[in-house]
Structure formats: C-alpha cells, structure tokens
Design brief:
151 residues; alpha+beta; 2 domains; 2 helices; 11 strands
Amino acid sequence: MKWNEFKELIKLLDQSSLDVLKLENKDIKLYFQKHDAANVTIDFKEQLSQTAESVKEVEESEKLPAKKDDGFYQIKSPMIGAFYSRSNSDAEPFVHVGSVIEKNQTVCVLEAMKLFNEVVSDVEGEIIEILVEDGQIIGFGQPLFLVKVGG
C-alpha cells in the first residue's frame, strides 16, 4: 500500500462505526483503534479476494448501459467518498424524490480527503429514488439515484 492509500483508509475508518481494525499480511501490519473496544482481525488474503471480486463486478457493470431493465437511469458515483445531499447542514438538498433535473445539474457532493466534489447529472429527467443516505461511504460506480429520463 502507498502512503496516500493508508491515509485514505484511516480517514474512512475514522468516519465509520468500527472502533478497531487490525490488518495483517506477510509484509504489512496495520492496527487502528478509535476507542477501547474488542479487536477485529481481517484475513488479508480473504479481503483481497473479496476486493478483486468487487472490482470484477464493477468492471462488468461498467460494460452495461446505465439504464436498468425497468427503464430508469442510474446516476452512479464517479469516485469513492462520503455522500452528502446538500452543500452544508443549513442548505436545502440539491435534489429530492420528484425533482426534475437538467443535464449537468449538481445532484449531490462526495467528500474525499476533505475535498468536496460535485456530482452532476448526465441526463434530463425526474428523480425517482435516492439510493443512499447522507454521510454514507460510497464506492466507485455505486448507483446514487434512479432517474426517469425525460421526466
């Protein structure tokens, strides 16, 4: 792992509900503890296998069009980060169920490494469903919204 990957991992763990994480590999040992809690150990080989399977699933899903069988379009996350529906706690959400959106309209922000990145719609339509919650950690390619195209 590279130093930036460690920093990102620590940040994500700090924001998660986990109190302790212990990763061990023949070359790497990582122990992270936020509070007094029971130890959690992860089999690094099993984790790598699961990660490889997740990457394969994302790669396969990227080959498919973003439309679902039911005719709705999925706005997917372009990156890993924490999902926020509004620019700050006092602001109104960018969109809600029933919002009619335009192409290139901001629909949410994703926060990674203290940087907030706007996610914009690549279609016009109506928000049918918001698939994630505020503060949820989002994976690359994860569906965020269902949109009825043409609204």
